[in-house]
Amino acid sequence: GEEHYNCISALHKSMRGSDENASLYWLARMLEGGEDPLYVARRLVRFASEDIGLADPLALTQAVAAYQGCHFIGMPECEVILAQCVVYFARAPKSIEVYRAYSNVKECLRMHTGPLPPVPLHLRNAPTRLMKNLGYGEGYKYNPMYKEPVEQDYLPQELKGTDFFKEQKT
């Protein structure tokens, strides 16, 4: 019932708060109460990107490995895999930079009126002669061919200068 959601919330918030002891407690309470370890592992995959993100990019690898380990061996053996992952996450630095930036992009898309801006011609592939004649791919600079970063716009003209990593006004 409701305790299912209360316990996963407590686990999530304990890891977010870097409390490894409470994190282990809530994990054990869920697993010893019969919770599906794959459910917990899926939530850890989400936590890795939502709460740790780029502060420790290996967190996502840890979460996926924990999920796979749980899938391979099941309970009760996988409990230590989940415990290791939970402690790793509690101890990890946290960053919601990507989570916020992606939310800002979604908000930008929701708030847009009218048709969405087209993909700039220079970013389009030109697999046919007609597409080449229409200017698809024209002027595109293939970055690996340059020693220095290239100046090139990647957003539609209407969004030029937009930085989704900065706080957006709602």
TrEMBL record:
UniProt keyword list: ATP-binding, Nucleotide-binding
Pfam families, alphabetized: MgsA_C (PF12002)
SUPFAM superfamilies for this protein: post-AAA+ oligomerization domain-like
Keyword Signal: no
GO molecular function: ATP binding; DNA binding; enzyme activator activity; single-stranded DNA helicase activity
Keyword Ribonucleoprotein on entry: no
Protein's GO biological process: DNA synthesis involved in DNA repair; DNA-templated DNA replication
GO cellular component: nucleus
Domain MgsA AAA+ ATPase C-terminal: 17-169
Gene3D superfamilies noted in UniProt: 1.20.272.10, DNA polymerase III clamp loader subunits, C-terminal domain
Protein name: ATPase WRNIP1
